[in-house]
Amino acid sequence: MGKQKRVFIVILVLACCFPIVNHNQVIEGTTMASYEEISVQEAKSRIDSNPTIFILDVRTEGEFLDGHIQGAVQIKYTQIINNFDKLPENFSREIIVYCDNGFRSRAGASKLTELGYSQVANMLGGFNDWLAEGYPFVTGYPSNSSMSANGEFSLTGVIILSMVELGLIHCIIRITKKKRSSYNP
Asked: How far is residue 35's CA from residue 96's CA, in Å, rounded to a whole number?
């Protein structure tokens, strides 16, 4: 037998001696962050039954302005970490993430779980399926922009919106709060 055949047989025997490992197994003592995938119908049911759900639209601003779910906050899926201050402070608050068809929202949902959010759901079918079901939507900027990510109204925001509507303010300077320090990449 040639030297190459002997080396091959030795390698083959050694390979058979090692246990086969499933790389998808969860190593004992560790947990993987995950999110739930839900239908448009399930998302609508949850939104209707729980007014504190945080609805995250991960599409572009233009797509958002053309139409979005009432109460949704728009953060492009690639900008979630940069807009951490727009996300809920409560990491156990329920979040529904959507895009046009459910693909970008998967990336967004994954990023949210990496950040530590524990109740994240990706809406399969996205806004396209939402529209196909005939569910309500709004266009333009949200009328509830004076509401914080925690579902609380800002009195300053309400006053400023009222002054804008009356035509007393023509320019608004946006001041954002400091980013929370609970994110550690």
From this structure: 10
